[in-house]
Amino acid sequence: MYPMLKPALRRAWRGRGTVQFGVTPAHAVTLGPMDIATSSFLELLDGTRGLPLLREEARALDLSDHQVDTLIRRLTDAGLIEDVRSVGPASDALRNRPGALERHRPDLASLSVVHPEPGGGMRRLAARRAMRVQVRGAGRVGAAIAAVLSGAGVGRVEVLDGGHTEHWDVSPGGLPPAAVGERRDTAARQLVRRSAGGSAPRTAETAGASESGEPGLSLIVVAPRDGFGVYVPDPRSAEQWITSGTPHLYAGVVEATGVVGPLVLPGGTACAGCLALTRAEADEEWPRMLSQWRSGRRTAVQACDLGLATAVAGLAATHALSFLDGDLPASTGTRWETALPLLDWRSERITAHLDCCCGAAGHTVRERVSGVDTAHDTMAG
């Protein structure tokens, strides 16, 4: 081990003998008491020295081997130590990819803060390369999500959509102006390749992946160009994902309203069917209006503000990456919603419905949480 104080966390003295690592409350850690010799020793933790050399140099500061080992342990337990030479096949493969690691330095720094164990950031960044995510939709929201996931190191990002790129599909973080007139799926694949760090990730076209949610998918992001399908998701479209146990996350914009979530963990959290049943119970007129909204074909351009679409895409991609990295983001079983012009994000917990065939309501709270953890470990591990 070559210990290094996590460079992503700024360091400042709070007073005599107390050091704070980090600025924001979410990740800041205070450590003390600390004398002059110990503070001098901290300067040696730059990742260039192994433990034997650290102990040797610490003796010149009148620090014993026991004191060094105790301090390293305390710093590690506090999540302040990074191991820049953490090993493993996936980590080694990432280091050997020309340009990839340099491009992902900011992502690696963020992961090292969020996941405190030494080498945790590198292991998660490397693990992304083996994951496969499917984005359903190549509009302003879906294309940007695909680009972010690919740029963040996800190894296989597939984008499914039909038709040809229109002028209003173009966005700074998504499909470029040159893609107008091209098939949307083709333009999206090119976007994914351009966004990838280092060599291009494998796509559905090159890897022979099918359109269904077969085993191997880490996550499906449902981001249709018509955000109505996110605000009012059709349970029938999700049946195969529920059956196969494939996690899926909804994201989109409808009528100047942005929606992220829920992230559905089949059998563990509420699904589109649960949402539909709950809405029908709360509003007896809802089924009648829904049938009218779904009948016929809309030809009007969607009310999808570019700034809002970009914000929704960024939030959805962040939630997706959090899930892929082994956490349960705030969209798990919950929908986040905001509307122009105030942009006040609000959350709504989606309750599992007893009559839904997904089975999420068949557990007690304790069993459901345990089931979510198990399902998550299986899909994201």
Q: What is the strand and helix layout of this fold?
A:
Layout: E1 3-5, E2 11-15, E3 18-21, E4 29-31, H1 36-42, H2 51-59, H3 65-77, E5 81-83, H4 89-95, H5 100-103, H6 105-114, H7 120-128, E6 132-136, H8 140-151, E7 156-160, H9 184-195, H10 204-207, E8 219-222, H11 228-231, H12 239-244, E9 248-254, E10 257-264, H13 272-282, H14 286-294, H15 306-324, E11 334-339, E12 346-349, H16 365-380
Parallel strand pairs: 6-7, 6-8, 8-9
Antiparallel strand pairs: 1-5, 2-3, 3-4, 9-10, 10-11, 11-12
Helix pairs in contact: 4-7, 6-7, 8-9, 8-15
Describe this structure in words.
The chain is an alpha/beta fold and 381 residues long. It has three domains: 3-83, Outer Surface Protein A, domain 3; 89-125, no CATH class; 131-380, Rossmann fold, CATH 3.40.50. The chain contains 16 helices and twelve strands. The strands form three sheets. It has a seven-stranded mixed beta sheet. Strands 2-3-4 form a three-stranded antiparallel beta sheet, with no helix packed on it. Strands 1-5 form a two-stranded antiparallel sheet. Helix 4 (89-95) packs across helix 7 (120-128), helix 6 packs across helix 7 (120-128) and helix 8 (140-151) crosses helix 15 (306-324). It is elongated. The chain starts with a strand and ends with a helix.
